[in-house]
Amino acid sequence: MADQVARGDAGVTGWISAELQQNVIQPIADFENPNQEWRRLFSELLGTFLLVMVAAGGGMMGRRFRIRSAGARRWSRRG
Predict the structure, then answer these.
(1) Alpha helix (H) residue ranges in the chain
(2) Domain spans of the chain?
């Protein structure tokens, strides 16, 4: 019985080690690859563009359709 438990623990440890290597260590090595720098720059630019578009789009839609958020109504009553 103890031998089966020891083999089971080794199997779990081996599985965890393989998962760690595949899902954590390998992606970190890929991320640090200088040949992939263009992907990081593209992601930063795309993310910034989308963030600005959403922020500007909310204000434009609010003005166009005279929509005020609950937060804006709450703050406007205070002052």
Answers:
(1) 2-20, 26-31, 37-64, 70-78
(2) 1-32, 37-79
- How far, in whole angstroms, is CA 44 from its chain's centroid? 12
Question: In the numeric block, which tokens belong to residue 28?
Answer: 């970190």
SS3 label, residue 67: coil
Amino acid in position 70: A
Torsion of CA 68, 69, 75, 79, to 10 degrees: 10
H helices then E strands: how many in the chain?
4, 0
Q: How many CB atoms lie within 10 A of CB 58?
A: 12
Residue 6, amino acid: A
Q: What is the pTM of this model?
A: 0.45
What is the mean pLDDT of the segment spanning 66-77?
Answer: 62
* Paired tokens of 34: 């200088």
